[in-house]
Amino acid sequence: MFRSASTFLDMEFGSSSARSQWELGTKRRRGDSVDSIRRLRWLQEAAHIIRRVHERRVLVADIATRNFLLDENLSLQMCDFTESVIVSNDEGMTSFVSEDYISVKFDIARFGSMIYEVMSGSRCEFYVVPEIEADLDDDPESKTFKTWPTAEKLPNTNNVFLGDIIGRCWAENGFLTMREVCHALDNADQRPAALKASGDTENANINWRRLLRLASPVATTIILAIVVVPRLRFPWRAIPSVLRSSGH
């Protein structure tokens, strides 16, 4: 089971499907955590899985990290369709809303919450239920709103890697299809500055420290050769002068 802070992805190993836990929060502090690029790859896979499910006219509803399994090749598999909804052929897929208010946009918002959890280690799921009298937003991890929430009612994602994509998943007029989400995620790894800002700079700093450690002995040798050695009076330095004087 992979975990980033409180975030996890279940992992199956071997034919016995025995599960092992990888505490990404702990491993990150030890310096061997799963990096942002690997997590981005998982999210890209997850987005395409959901897109294919939607193409078969099925709404997932329960989109969460707990429902994505990693096989022995670290490839994702999706499980648990107990809350899913099949949309009939005479309904418009993007405009359909079930009796429980499940829709394509709801799935996209839940996937945005999954991205947020994987990348930040914090959870924030929300539901939109017009029947309630007032917003139920006391719980920071699960909120229910009477109308679609504005950005001010949701966590700030400015400092979270993929924060712009999370925001567009959450926004009512943001992404409207999983194909749009897939396109955004597939192009996210073409932004090296964002990847570096998300934690790769730590590796870069380690590399620089290593280079400095390697460079220090070399620099010391050069300084000795240029400055110190010429000033030393070794016995053999006197031999040429002795030979010249003896020749006279």
Automatic annotation (TrEMBL):
It comes from Penicillium oxalicum (strain 114-2 / CGMCC 5302) (Penicillium decumbens). It comes from the Eukaryota. This is Protein kinase domain-containing protein. InterPro entries: Kinase-like_dom_sf (IPR011009).
